[in-house]
């Protein structure tokens, strides 16, 4: 009898031991997380070799600017990843590839957001997370708008992957006031030669193109697009052919300044010419204009360029086509012959190189709300 009980006890102990061993073999061996990262495997039954190796902690963004963070993962895992956000500010998004984007545009958003959480899930259900803090600095300017620059044609839709950055316009001040024509400051050299001599904006450089927005400090409702190439005393003869399109503009626009060095015989009316201007009446009774311009420039000893405007409203976009064949005049090939670089200059001191793009779009992105 004792021998039989002893055998039963041995069998029960063996089964219990085997059961414990089986459970231990399926426990997930958490990898060591990086700073401000954690691993959550409550719903996972498989361990993957993956971790978040980048850090977003203690980040800041200036009010009205766009915050971007693209988390980097490391490890041997190469399968599909799914990204999600939690405890994030309203309007903050994360793309299918993990890019986090957000533009604070309400006064109430000027604060620090704590423990924003990014969750990354593998195809097997293995989960890793990262939390970070984000501080919004700056102040809200009543009635202000947020402008931006994108590569390619963004007149009718906005592709966030083409976003190059936020921009601001150059502005004069109460002690030195300049109209757009006065700010461009073109001067005659000889009988028909002109050169830019701007007051507010980037300095003209030989062989380089400059693009920027300008408005008057006491008349901010109207913005003007400035662009010019080269500088006084240049030695190389260059040709620049571009097309410019405006859309959703609340003002009828024209070429405010047509800085001619020489007028090509194929262009009637100057180097900068408005080809067409259409308008649409909206349901609220307001009118929006869409215009097309050709810019066909040839310069050598002096700079060349133009001012287009006025541009007004909170939806306008300006598309500048720099390469390919003109959609206005199919016989014209768009070129930047002789230019070593072309840049957009923002009033806040930042620049955006346009040398790698055949075209770009500038305009309003969203409106600031200082009421809440």
Approximate helicity band: under 10%
- Helical element count? 2
The overall pLDDT average reads 81
Give the terminus-to-terminus CA distance: 84 Å
Rg result = 30 Å
Query: What is the oligomeric state here?
Result: single chain
Largest sheet: 9 strands, antiparallel
Anisotropy-based shape: globular
Strand composition percent: 35-45%
> Number of folding domains?
2
Provide the succession of SSEs. Answer: HEEEEEEEEEEEEEHEEEEEEEEEEEEEEE
Low-confidence stretches: 4-35, 261-267
The structure class reads mainly beta
Total strand segments: 28
Tell me briefly what this model is.
With 372 residues, this protein is mainly beta. It has helices at residues 2-26, 180-184; strands spanning 37-39, 51-52, 59-62, 67-69, 73-74, 81-86, 93-94, 100-102, 112-122, 127-137, 145-151, 163-167, 170-171, 187-189, 193-195, 208-216, 219-229, 238-249, 254-259, 272-281, 287-299, 304-311, 317-321, 324-325, 333-336, 341-345, 351-353, 359-367. The chain has two domains: 37-137, Immunoglobulins (Immunoglobulin-like); 145-367, no CATH class.
């Amino acid at each position: 009898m004792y021998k039989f009980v002893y055998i039963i006890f041995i069998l029960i102990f063996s089964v219990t031991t085997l059961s414990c061993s089986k459970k231990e073999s399926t426990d997930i061996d958490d990898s060591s997380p990086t700073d401000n990262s954690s691993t959550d495997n409550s719903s996972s039954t498989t361990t993957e070799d993956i971790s978040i190796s980048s850090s977003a902690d203690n980040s800041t963004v200036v009010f009205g600017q766009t915050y971007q963070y693209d988390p980097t993962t490391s490890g041997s895992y190469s399968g599909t990843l799914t990204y999600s956000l939690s405890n994030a500010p309203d309007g903050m998004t994360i793309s299918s590839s993990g890019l986090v984007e957000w533009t604070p545009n309400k006064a109430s958003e000027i604060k620090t957001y704590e423990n924003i959480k990014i969750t990354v899930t593998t195809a097997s259900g293995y989960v890793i997370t990262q939390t970070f803090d984000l501080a919004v600095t700056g102040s809200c300017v009543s009635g202000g708008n947020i402008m931006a620059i994108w590569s390619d044609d963004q007149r009718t839709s906005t592709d966030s992957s083409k976003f190059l950055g936020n921009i601001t316009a150059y502005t004069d001040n109460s002690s030195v006031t300049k109209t757009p024509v006065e700010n461009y400051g073109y001067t005659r050299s000889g009988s028909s030669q002109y050169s830019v001599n701007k007051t507010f904006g980037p300095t003209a450089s030989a062989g380089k193109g400059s693009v920027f927005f300008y408005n008057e400090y006491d008349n901010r409702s109207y913005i003007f697009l400035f662009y010019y190439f080269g500088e006084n005393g240049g030695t190389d003869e260059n040709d620049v052919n571009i097309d410019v399109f405006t859309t959703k503009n609340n003002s009828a626009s024209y070429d405010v300044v047509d800085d001619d060095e020489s007028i090509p015989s194929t262009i009637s009316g100057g180097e900068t010419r408005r080809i067409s201007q259409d308008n649409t009446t909206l349901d609220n009774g307001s009118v929006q204009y869409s215009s097309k311009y050709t810019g066909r420039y040839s310069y050598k000893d002096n700079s060349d360029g133009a001012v287009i405007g006025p541009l007004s409203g909170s939806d306008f976009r300006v598309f500048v086509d720099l390469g390919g064949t003109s959609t206005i005049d199919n016989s014209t090939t768009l070129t930047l012959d002789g230019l070593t670089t072309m840049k957009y200059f923002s009033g806040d001191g930042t620049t955006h190189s346009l040398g790698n793009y055949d075209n770009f779009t500038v305009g309003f992105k969203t409106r600031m709300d200082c009421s809440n």
